[in-house]
Design goal:
80% of the residues lie in helices and 0% in strands. By secondary structure, it is mostly helical.
Amino acid sequence: MIISIKLNRILILLVLILSACSGQDKKDAADFFLKGNKALSQKNYAEALRLYDEAIAKNADFSDAYLNKGITLLKMGRPEDAHEILTEAIKIDPTLTQANLVRAESGLDLGRLREAKEDLQQIEKDYKDSSRFFLVRGNLLGAEGNASLALADYDRSIQLQKLNVEAYVNRGAIYYGLKNWKAAKEDFENALALNPVQPEALNNLGLIATKERNWKTALSYFDKVLAATPNDPYSLNNKGYVLLQTGSAEQAKELIEKSLDRLPKNGYAFRNLGIYYQQAGAHDKAIEAFTKAIDIAEPVDMLYGLAGQAYFQQKNLTEACRIWKQGVVLKDSISMAEAAKNCR
């Protein structure tokens, strides 16, 4: 009996110790979590990630830590890892609807449109007054090619939060794609009024100025982006294009090649490199660059028309017409003019 009593006491002590340890772990997890939130707010993403991992190590069921770790990973440009962690958060707590919203964002980045749509449909009723929800759904609709519905969601997002810079930028991008330059310009300017260094708004305003052949203004926008982010591949390439149009070909080539080092699959950069070689009379190299742009299989203005011209300059009318006819299908303006003039 005495042995039994001692064993009971030992078991009770063990339970108490384990309970106390569990409580301390949860307290430590909460401390790490709060420190992680502070680091996240300061955009110290590496430190935030470390702290959320510490929180999860102390409390493996800490769904909010998984959620914020997912947000951090998305901010770090790691959507695949974010998607995986957010899925874990949802498994732990299926009612954590914010995890579905952020997972939808990561799904969009990964091109998993169906999964992103399912996440948004699941939480739609809970997010009727969420500017962020309508922003993300607008992004999904835009990715699906449904411009009118995307615009409606961006309108709603801005209505719910007048200071939503992303919604202005993304709505402007839809208007830009629809060639409604006036509406696009207004949205990008509204975004800059809220954030004067917003890179997408600056870059897109530079593109509009480029279309208007307002070279000085275009360069000023691209230079503002590059002052903050010297290796931004889009502004490097876009500035390069403007320099090609204004007689600074060698400087243009340097910027375009630098852009390709940062973003190797950029059809516009290869097109611009082709323009450089075309201007230099190096038609073989121009064709090589244009072909690389075509192989990327993304819509690029004037690409087929310029490629056809390079073949035409080599007196290869058969290949020129083949390329121009492809461009006609894609409504490439140069292709349509050249095919009408030179091809039967």
